Structure formats: C-alpha cells, structure tokens
Description:
Elements lengths: L1 E4 L3 E3 L3 E3 L1 E9 L2 E8 L4 E2 L3 E2 L4 E9 L3 E4 L7 H11 L7 E3 L5 H4 L2 H7 L4 E4 L1 H11 L4 E4 L5 E6 L6 E8 L9 E5 L4 E5 L16 H16 L3 H11 L7 E4 L9 H15 L5 E6 L6 H14 L3 E6 L5 H10 L2 E5 L7 H13 L5 E5 L9 H8 L5 E2 L12 H29 L2 H8 L3 E2 L1 E7 L6 E7 L2 E5 L4 E7 L13 E6 L6 H7 L15 E2 L8 E2 L4 E12 L3 E13 L8 E2 L8
Parallel strand pairs: 9-10, 10-11, 11-12, 16-17, 18-19, 18-20, 20-21, 21-22
Antiparallel strand pairs: 1-4, 2-3, 4-5, 5-8, 6-7, 8-9, 13-14, 14-15, 15-16, 23-33, 24-25, 24-28, 26-27, 27-32, 28-31, 29-30, 31-32
Helix pairs in contact: 6-7, 8-12, 9-10
Bound molecules: flavin mononucleotide.
The site of flavin mononucleotide has 16 residues, from strand 25 and strand 27.
Amino acid sequence: MKTENLPPVVGGPKKEQRLSLQFAKIAQDTSTFRSLDWDRSRFDIEFGLRNGTTYNSFLIKGKKTALVDTSHKKFLNDWIQLLKKEINPCSIDYLIVSHTEPDHSGLIGELLELNPDIEILASKVAIQFLANQVHRPFRSRAIKSGEELDLGENSCSGISHRLEFISAPNLHWPDTIFTFDYGTSILYTCDAFGLHYCSEEVFDIDQQVIYEDFRFYYECLMGPNARSVLQAIKRLEKLPTINIIAVGHGPLLKYHLNSWIEYYQTWSNQKSKGKNYSAICYISQYGFCDQLSQSIAHGVAKTNAQAQLIDLNSSDPQELTALISEAKAVVVPTWPSQPIGDLQNSIGTLLAALSQKQWIGVYEAYGGNDEPIDAIANKLRTLGQKEGFSPLRVKQNPDSNTFQRFEEAGTDLGQLLNRKQNVATAKSIDGELAKAMGRVSGGLYIVTAEQGLGNDRRRGAMVASWVSQASFKPPGLTVAVAKDRAIEALMQVGDRFVINVLREDNYQPILRHFLKRFPPGADRFEGVAILEDHAKGGPVLMDALAFLSCQVQQRLETPDHWIVYGLVEQGNVADTSTKTAVHHRKVGSNY
Ligand SMILES: Cc1cc2nc3c(=O)[nH]c(=O)nc-3n(C[C@H](O)[C@H](O)[C@H](O)COP(=O)(O)O)c2cc1C
C-alpha cells in the first residue's frame, strides 16, 4: 500500500485542509485509488462530518481494463499523477461512472483529455448529464440493469472479469448503478454502504470504530430513500456471495459484510413500515429538481416519516400508479410546459393515480420553461386533496437558503403525516411514569445558530428546556434537539450555537414569539431585538439574562433527539439581579 502526502490546500476561511492519496491492491487484478480528504467538515448543507471523508476509485484489469469512478476536483493534478504512475491512461478501455455527483466524477474531463478513446459506461441519464458537464464529445454506452461487460481474462492471474450492472436509483443520486465483478466477487456501490471516515485503513477491520459514522451516513443519505434501498438489496440477492463491497467513501467493507447489509435492511425496513409515506417526485436532470427533491426528502425523513423519491423521467407506469395512489402525500415539481416522451406519459399517469385525502405539495424545478406552479397546484387538487405546504417558489439559482426552506417544508409535511402517531406515542407513556418524569425540570432557553454571510446566511432558533451542564473542564453543556427541529441542520459537529438564558421576571413574550409556527424558511428573528455579531455562532437576544456561545463537539443519538454536546467558548451575564426562568412540567410526555 502506498500513501502520498500532498501539499495542503487552502479552503474556507484560512483553514488548511490536509489531502493525501493512497494506492492499494484489494484483490486479484484489482486496486483502489483513495483520495483522502482529512478535514472536510461538511457534505451537502445538512451533513456535518466528524472524521473527514475519502473518494475511492477502482482499477480492474482483465484482458481489457476498466476504471470505476474518478475523484473530486480538488485532487486534480495529484490524482492524475498517481494514476499515470500506476497505469498508462491510454490503456484504460472503459470508465464506469457509478453516478455523476462531482466528488466522484470531478476528473472525468481531465481523464478524457489524456485518453479521448475511453468508453464511458453509465446509466442513460448519467450520460446525458456528463455531456453537459465535460463539454466535449466522448464515446459512451448507456447501460441498463442486468447488462454485462466482459473484460476478459487477465493473462497473469487467469481470472476472467465479467461485470454485471445493477441499477440502484436514488442511492443517493437518481442515476446510480452498482457493478458486480464475477471474477473477484466485488460489488462496487459508490455512495451506497459508504461512510464519511478518513483513515489509511483500507478495510473495515474494526467495526466499532466506524459504526457511528456508518449509521449517521445511512441516516442522512440513505434513510430518505429507504424503499429504494430495499429494492436495491433485493436485486443483490440474485448475485453469488459478495466478497467485498467497494464503496466510494470511507473504508471498503470486507470483514463485517453481512452485518453491514443487515443494518441497511433493518433500518430501511423500520423506515418503510406501513403505507404512511410521501411520494416525492422529481424530473432527473431537469432544472434543480434532483437536489431540491433530496432536500424535501431529507426534511420528511427527519420526522421519521417515510419519503419515496420517484423519477418521472424513468418510472415504470404500473409502479408509478401504485406508488402515487398508495401515498399519503404527493410532492410534485413544476414540469416543462411542453413535456415529451416518457415524461409526458409519467405526468399523465401521475395525475390519473392521485387519490382523495392526500396531502399535496408543489415545488418549482427552476428548469427555465416550467408550467406555472399555481396551474400545477390546481391540477393536483382536483379530488379535494389538501395542501401539505404552500407552493415552494424559486426565483433565482437555489442557494443554501433555498435548500433549507425546502428541507423545512419537507419536515412540516412529515409532521403532518406523523401527527396521529405522535399523539398516540405521547399517550402511550404510562401515567405514573409520565408524572414522575414530569418532576424533572429545566431552565428556559432560546438556542440560536447562524451560518454563512450575505445572501447565503442561514439562521435558526428554538425554545429549549432540555439543557444541562455536562463538563467542568473544559466547560461544556448538552442540548437535546428533536430530530425534526429546523435548527438541527445548523448544529452539526464543528458548528457553533448560542444558548440565550431567559430571565425569570420577563420570559413570556420571547417564549411566545419563538413557539409560533414559522413557515418554511421564515426569519425567526423578525421583530425580535438582537445584538448582531455579539457572539460567535448565533444571535444574542437583547432581553436574554445571559448567553453562552458553544461549539459542537459530539452528538449522541437517542430515538427521537440528538444530544448535542458543545464546548462553551464565551459567556456573559447581562443582569445579576434576576434568576433564570424555570420550567416545571406535569408530565414527561411533553417538554
Ligand atoms: C417549554 C418548552 C421547552 C422545549 N424544550 C425543547 C428542547 O429542549 N428540545 C427540543 O428539541 N424542543 C423543545 N421544545 C419544542 C420546540 O423548541 C419548539 O416547538 C420549537 O421552537 C419549534 O421549532 P421547529 O419549528 O423547528 O419544530 C420545547 C418547547 C417548549 C414549549
């Protein structure tokens, strides 16, 4: 195994990021190039990373040679250099693109420059997308599930490398395909089964060390597509025994393979129990549909309700009818004003499959020539469906605020779907126990958090009473944040937040304000007196008794909350003549 350290690159606000590259043999005729991104602290807007990440690509040498995926653009020169050191790029016959997310496909353009004859194999949508991404002609083959590519026999090992492709849409991109090599029994899954964990350990030797990151990754990326995960696992059952799952992020899975797959199965079964799901439709490669639909799905999944993503560009009419008619909520993007082909058929099928009493949500795809959003919302309400959230309009290229707004709309929808279940859960706590739990009391606080600047600024706030000091040296505290709180996305490891302590003699107006039901994306501080730039991490309320500014160190998962542990960096008491507001409860089934 070889590791190469690269000079640090500068990324973000003057923070050096360590990058390195690793090349290792993983099986007969098969090796991996791993790009190690030690300090990456965020993935998508809602996903904070504790242990960096890696981008893995693979080289398979039969009679012919195939490369599976490339790397992130930030590894540009060094990745190409290492590739050249290990193989003449012109001798690579095929590039298999598992999906087109830039962290795996970021260097395809450069590879094509070195070897314009390489043939790219990917799903149909992925090839269309690449055409826009690389801006140059290339040889390509659109592959479908079940199709094969025979690389032939490696003359040294005598092993024949026959590859089969398995489509796995929505894991975690719409165009994802898996590849299985019958010669080595390695399954290449790219994002699926991966984890954001950077180390030079190529394999999953110690399961305990990486379990938390594996679980968190599933929650963030796969959980919103639990039904698609189960469909993909079903397809894998037809394969012979798998030896290695060669993932695109983190260590490759080899030593605990069955247990990792079982985790995916168990978690996805839990998430897709019953029929109380929302069907979130999108049109792949149209406008910003892909990412916007993912944000809505992520918001729904935060509430523990289910989300089923459906690509209107490539769905089977029968399957579409079943998924739409059985859904409790249907979310639809604006579609092109003159849809053609499969898309036109899917829209017809979708409209015909809607049923009464469904919740409906519409969002703008921002595709350039969309049917007006209000016209689509009206079309969807023909049978008396109810609005799950107000139409989500997009007036400019989506930024992180837009994604936050979409995520919050998804959360609102998920809460509607779960309403009955949550009331039942609260009632199910034994009366005496609930009363005894109610004797646990806390103070009253407003937690605030803020990130980004200018148009990209995102901020949030929540009322909290489950706040507790958790360490003396260094001073630290915990806040229990419900998994479906909007502010949760701003309280990832490394993020900062502020605890505003409310005063005993005057807390009601502030409490009332922050307990209002805010529409998705609303500025929760409108009409509230705040001290801007007073503390790192979030607004300080003018009427707070004290504030504590913290940085998140760890998060512990409970069934319905994240226990967020923050180190206190700064704090101040505004008025020593009064005490903290205390919250006494009757029962422990409510805050
Ligand atoms: C007295 C009181 C204490 C609360 N404490 C917490 C808490 O510690 N953690 C939490 O997640 N939510 C707590 N909540 C609930 C939410 O903070 C509140 O509903 C929230 O501000 C709405 O935010 P959302 O729109 O993100 O759901 C509390 C609510 C009340 C009334």
